[in-house]
Amino acid sequence: MFPQLRMRRLRSGKIRDMVRETSLSVNDLIYPMFVDETLDTAREVPSMQGVYRLPLDRVVDEAKDVADLGIPGVILFGIPAQKDEVGSSASGDDDIVQRATRAIKEELGKDMMVITDVCMCEFTSHGHCGIVDHTSEEVLNDATLPHLGKIATSHARAGADMVAPSGMMDGMIGTIRSALDREKFENVPIMSYAAKYSSAFYGPFRDAADSGYSFGDRSTYQMDPANSDEAIREVELDIMEGADIIMVKPALPYLDILYRIKHEFGMPTAAYNVSGEYSMIKAAAQQGWLDEDKVMYESLMSIKRAGADMILTYFAKDLARMLK
Ligand code: PBG
After folding, report:
1. Whose CA is nearest to atom 7 of ligand 1?
2. Does 166 sit in the ligand 1 pocket, CB within 6 Å?
3. pLDDT category, 209, cuts 50, 70, 90?
4. 213 vs 103: which has the higher pLDDT
5. Which terminus of the chain has fewer Cβ atoms in its 10 Å neighbourhood, N or C?
6. 3-state DSSP helix/strand/coil percent for the chain, to nearest 5?
7. Given 83, 105, 196, 262, which residue is catalytic?
8. Per-residue pLDDT averaged across 92-101, rounded?
9. How close are the terminal C-alpha atoms of the chain, in Å?
10. pLDDT-based confidence at residue 130 (cuts at 50, 70, 90)
11. How far is the CA of 99 from the centre of ligand 1 (A)?
């Protein structure tokens, strides 16, 4: 007891570093990139300072910069020139994500892990993550699944190192696993957006990826932010269906979920530090209200401390520069 016991003894000098329980490394990071088929020059996303939509020929340069910083992986999102009811431009071998994947892999090979987001919302005219019945305004689960299988296999054919289904359709992991295996992509892992919440923190992303929706919202497929036990069931199902890595999204408002999932399953676990989490810090820093570097570091550290093995974050380049 005090005064014999003093917690402050270990809080200064070298010993402070030695008793640190969590560390952040550039190896923990995955950088999201947006490739836009309609652009000739890079265009900054207005609500996401420092994040750009890139034309195909800039994507490789950007991936090289990311690799030079020591960041091991990127996750690709595509904005197609054409959208239609069924998101046809998501699954062609010469569509934008597939071309970007091939271009990066040709140039960087094993020096860059390319993960592709497998979803339909950037490719459908209505902006939903699946096939829509317009009479009932319902996003049809089972009718969507074969499309996800096609998208994932097209990504694998283009050379994707890992696919990341984000649409929150029931059965999507099992469908994609079977589709990949059928085409001999049994070694391509699946990172499942397993516990993805229906969150307002995705606001700026919908600017970035042009994936806003024309009616309703995503609450019939994404999770209710009030639920925690349900996240356990979602993750359990995805593991049974064959997910290799499970993801919690968003990150900061859901650290309790991340903690529970990591401890309950002991699976490789990812957290998506989403667009709104990024933009809040950028905006406050721009006003001079927060120290951007410190707040970024503390936020990402807390995500690791809660149980993440890896973090998808728009701060990846900033953090990598800081760690150098
Ligand atoms: C698409 C998808 C979204 C994000 C990643 N994949 C948006 C959504 O579900 O509306 C959000 C990422 C972010 O906000 O940074 N299914």
Report:
1. 202
2. yes
3. confident
4. 103
5. N
6. 45, 20, 35
7. 196
8. 98
9. 41
10. very high
11. 21
